[in-house]
Amino acid sequence: MNRLTVDEFKEAEKLPLVVVLDNIRSLHNIGSVFRTADAFRLEGIVLCGITACPPHPEMHKTALGAEFTVSWNYVNNTVEAVHNLHQQGYKVLAIEQAEHSTLLHEFTLDKGEKYAVVMGNEVKGVQQEVIDCCDGCIEIPQYGTKHSLNVSVTAGIVIWDLFNKLFFG
Description:
Blueprint (H helix, E strand, L loop, with lengths): L5 H6 L3 E8 L4 H13 L2 E7 L8 H7 L8 E4 L2 H10 L2 E6 L6 E2 L10 E6 L8 H6 L2 E4 L11 H18 L1
Parallel strand pairs: 1-2, 1-6, 2-3, 4-6, 4-7, 5-7
Helix pairs in contact: 2-3, 2-6
């Protein structure tokens, strides 16, 4: 199946994309984001606030070992994490339904930039103070009766779209 070993993964070139998890409470959601980050060889994940850190048996159920391949770090305060990413040259975008957000399919990327996306808490979303320090907001258009998606589903959609735009676009 042409899969990389853990050592090959760690040495492989990464997509210039980091996912920031802002107070994610579900270990299964965290594990799922790790697994998606592994699938698309992201640069890493930043875990913030109440978001649990590996290793954890419940997280492992959905990460399936991706928590050992994907680079991650923990920052208590998400605003601080965003500032750190800015200092490292990342353009940081909140994934949230907000005034003046850009619809995902209308969002264009500069291939020379590095990006980070902030995924918010399962109930409250991305904190307003975090949105305020981001470079913008991206929103996934939704056309049904519900106007929210599970955070791991959101991460999968956004990562896939940005992967396509950065890699193929």
